[in-house]
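Action item from last week, closing it out:
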Amino acid sequence: MPSQSRSRLPASQPGDTTDSRRLTEAVTRLRRALRASIRTDYPWETLPMAQVELLQVLAEHSPARIGDLASRQRLAASTVSGLIGQMINAGLVARAVDPADRRASVVTLTDAGREQLDAWTHAHENRLEAALGSLDEADRAAVRAALPALFRVADFLEDAEG
C-alpha cells in the first residue's frame, strides 16, 4: 500500500516543486480526504468546520464574548454571531450575561457541545489512526518526526496574523 500512496504524489511540474506548494497540496488533500471519509464512516458527523473551530476555542477559552471569538478566529463578529445563534439552537453553546460587564454577553460550551466536540475529535483520531496504520514504519516515523516542525509552522502563521 505504501507504493500506492507514493504513486499519488503530485507530478513534478517546473516551478511547482517548492516546499510551500507541496505542503499546501498535502494539507488541502488531507483536509478534503479526512472530511470525505468522516462523512462516509460517521454519517452522523455533520458539524460544519466553522462550528467545530468555535467549539474548540470555547473548550479552551470559555466563557468568551462574541467579539473575542471573532478576533481569535479572524472572522467578522456578525459571522460569529450567526454561527453562535445556530449553535445555541442546536444546544451546543449557551449565552449568558457577562459577570464582569452586565451590558455584555458571553458564550459558554454546554455539556452537549463538549460531547459533540469529543465525538468529532474521536472520529477524526480514528480515521487518522487507520490511515497512519496503513503506512510502513519508516513513513510513520517520518510523520512523527515532522510533527514538531509542523506545529512551529502553525505557531509562526498564528503569530504573523496577530
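Closing note: The chain is about 70% helix and 10% strand.
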